[in-house]
Amino acid sequence: MSAGERAKAKAEQVVGKTVRKAAHAVHKETLAAKGAALEARGRMRGAKEQAKSSFKR
Question: Given pLDDT bands bounded at 50, 70 and 90, which one contains residue 57?
Answer without folding.
Answer: low
